[in-house]
Amino acid sequence: MKKRVYVVTFFMGVIVALLLIFIKLPYYVTMPGTAQDLKPLVHVENGDKDEGELMLTTVKMGRANVVAYLLAHIRSFYELHPLDEIKQEGETDEEYTMRQFQLMEQSKEAAIVVAYKKAGKPVSYKAKGVYVMSVVPHMPAYGRLKVGDRIVEIDGKKMDTSEQMVQYIRTKKKGDHVSIMFERGKKKKVETLALMPFPHDPKQIGVGISLATDYDVVTNPPVRVNSEQIGGPSAGLMFSLEIYNQLVDEDITKGHKIAGTGTININGEVGPIGGISQKIVAADKEGAEIFFAPNENGAADSNYREAVKTAKEIGTSMKIVPVDTFDDAVRYLERMK
């Protein structure tokens, strides 16, 4: 009898453990990730080999189960996010992943252009297409266009940039129809869609998509950035600094371990990111001495201010440096001992 009770108890315990692990809750949980040296990811042909490190910082994220949900309430720098904070309404996991990789590609292209211009090296870039980044539910494009579709033409007119497409749509009015030719994989398709007001902004009309321009960047010397395993745009600033460091003769790190985060656009402007506190923890764990944080032009709730607060909480000696532009970061490094 006792043996039977033990067996039943054991199997009940296994079932409960499996439920705790495999039942997914309507949250994502994020936690400190890693701080990784960028030299293995960035290869400028015949680029300088420098002593210091420029480090990419990451946040780990996954769908929350019961265990992760409980840990997020008791462990520092574990955070819960409702699904709609991470994914757009109606967005699948595949579409979310594709959107993150598209954002990374944009950020990488901008990082290359900014670094080569600053180093005075030949670089050219040409718009080569417009990609769908998101589709708004209950709008005409919903269910007909997908994240990652490359728009080729609208009403027979070639579209090289997202700005061109937006300007063309602005010449239309509510109820007008547009014929959109796009590429999905290796196939070309055409959809005719009506224009209607956006739910969040009735004054604006469209088919219900957000767009991104893809650029063909040509450099001399050539550069290769291995970003296949990285999603999102937050590595832009650090990629640009690593590329620049390999292009110039001097070692801008001066032998130090330097981490940071922030988006970058083609004008060298640094933008805010999510998970700054968790990235501070990751950088400190890897021994970073300096951390570049987006300043957001001194906003009261900027990434920089949150980073400073977190640095004090964990008692790190890592110096937090505010940056609004790529040039801000370079100037700081040039003045550094």
From TrEMBL:
Q: Which reaction does it catalyse?
A: Hydrolysis of proteins in presence of ATP
EC assignment: the record states 3.4.21.53
Task: List residues traversing the bilayer.
Answer: 7-29
Q: Is Cell inner membrane a UniProt keyword of this protein?
A: no
Q: Which UniProt keywords apply?
A: Hydrolase, Membrane, Protease, Serine protease, Transmembrane, Transmembrane helix
One GO biological-process annotation of the entry reads: protein catabolic process
PROSITE patterns with a match to the protein in the record: LON_PROTEOLYTIC (PS51786), PDZ (PS50106)
Alphabetical list of NCBIfam families matching this protein: SepM_fam_S16 (NF041438)
Write the protein's name.
endopeptidase La
What is the source species?
A: Parageobacillus thermoglucosidasius
